[in-house]
Inverse folding.
């Protein structure tokens, strides 16, 4: 009885580790996507600001 309990806890911990890796990978993917969006927005804002400042020179 103790062995079956020990075996189930190790399999559940390995399943949790696999789920943790999937979660980490998903979070990393979302962070990468958000960084790309922020980069694009920053470039657009800089371009618009430059056009506004240097527009009618």
């Amino acid at each position: 009885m103790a062995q079956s309990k020990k075996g189930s806890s190790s399999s559940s911990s390995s399943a949790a580790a696999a789920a943790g890796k999937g979660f980490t990978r998903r979070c990393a993917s979302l962070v990468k996507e958000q960084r790309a969006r922020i980069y694009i927005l920053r470039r657009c804002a800089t371009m618009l600001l430059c056009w506004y400042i240097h527009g009618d020179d």
In short: The CA atoms of residues 18 and 40 lie 33 Å apart.
